[in-house]
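Hello,

Following up on my earlier ticket. Below are the two sequence lines again, exactly as submitted.
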Amino acid sequence: MKPKVVFVLASFVALALYPLVAASFGIDLITKVMIFSIVALSLELLVGGTGLVCFGQAAFFGIGAYVAVLLSPQDGPASVAWLLPAAMLAAAGYAMAVGALSLRTRGVYFIMVTLAFAQMAYYVVHDTPLGGGTDGIYLMMKPVLGERIDLDRPIILYFFTLFALILVFGFLSLLLRSRFGRALAGIRVNEQRMRATGFETYPYKLAAFTISGAIAGLGGFLFAVKDGFVNPELMSWHFSGSVLIMVILGGIGHLRGALIGAFAFAFLQEVFQSEAIFGAFAKHWHLGLGLAIIASVATLPNGLVGLPAQIRDRLIGRSSRRAQAEGMRG
Amino acid sequence: MKRSAIEPSGVPGKAAESGPLLRGREITQRWGGLIAVNQVSLEIARGSVHAVIGTNGAGKSTLVNILSGELAPTSGRVELMGQDVTGWSQPRRARAGLGRSYQRNTIYSSFSVLENCRLAAQARMPKPWAWWQDAQGCTHSTAAAHEAAERAGLAEVLDSKAGLLSHGQKRQLEIAMCLATAPQVLLLDEPLAGMGAEETERMLALLVDLKARHGILLVEHDMDAVFRVADCITVMVNGSVIASGTPDFVRQSPEVQVAYLGEQDLEQI
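Thanks for your patience. The regenerated structure is below:
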């Protein structure tokens, strides 16, 4: 078995065992990080899988969250069986509309157009009664699946999120290995060549964009259920930026990079927010986090995923230089 | 008899059997006041190499871009196997049997040679987007990829990373990727660029081999190579054709001699 497969399996086993040793704070935190991992995976499909740097992932995430809250009845819990698909479909629908227009642009224009569409969604919930304005909306009754799966219970939500994360990871792994996934990889490397070969690239990109939106919507649904509250900040460009940083931090072009990036980002955030470590400076945690991210991007060109190979190369380089020097002396 | 996985196929029109595979009629491309290609007509028949030569800026690459569908011409018409394809997109023309290679390498460096060819072959599959089907498990595209790589002389390096190949091998891979799409016509934009003598010989042998089954449009600066392999040569200067015919005809053409050597040099000769 390949080391990367072992790593992913071991990570999922560790996550499954974590509640045995964790307190409620830990369970809540890791649930949140797993949700971020799902959103980071959705962006990885675009950035690493297709070469599309989207700066509007927060919109799809937020739409999933808002739909989960807005469609939930006030007088009783909704069923996950319809509420989750509805949230994902709404996010996918918006992603398809945004993609249909933005994918006609390239490079920095694409980044800006996706950002503009996300800001549009942000202001719809921020400035209209629909989204409850800046106060947001509460989810009174958390959804259930049958009688046993009540997402109001943190431990149930934890395992439900873990299950969703595993499903998303497995689905994207298969997708990227498929004919469709190889075509996306070809588009990422050289779209002009793909067209010359006979691929109509636009529908492929639009499909990837829509799938990515649906997965981000899944993340939004889970986040709304976890917090029991949504507000416009879920759709802000800060969140889009954070997800992009997670993907870059972990290593673009690797699904496990998105997982590692989400966990590393959350870890760094927790560390720099800790008053026990940084005292009064913890108030300025954004500064510390930013510097740490700049340092990691500067020193890890392939992200955290590439760290083992980077260490190995450095060790091999050092030992070969030593052998060379000894050879010259000899 | 087993059918080749990359046997040229396509959607021939009525004229396909007897007429040229690819025909450009009075193609013009204007960029504002500049006429990059001016009323150029040419034909490419199966079993022949039609070379287009000219100095830099003559409009050769623009012409190839128009023929391949990457650019829409200002006026004129492109016919593929008797069918008017002027309004067709580049991918549609490619699926109909028009393969092209670029001046620059456009291979997928991080993929293996086999993967490069398999991805190209996938474009001609019935469902190239099948998200439920493992790309490596597709026997038809894998067979097409093997055959294309073999014909391009890359059978020994199938599993090598494309980025690690020599320059000559990368150019061969460009052609192998075209072949994997089972084209009728190959538009080759400077396939010999940057090659050493040995690599050039290998590429010329490949072109001669490919000629039997395809029609080839060759844009090339290496005149020795062009005159060795071409059956027909079109000479372009400032977007216009100044001569077109057999290599002997072009060699004797006073217009070509003036264009390449200049009137003063010609008088001295």
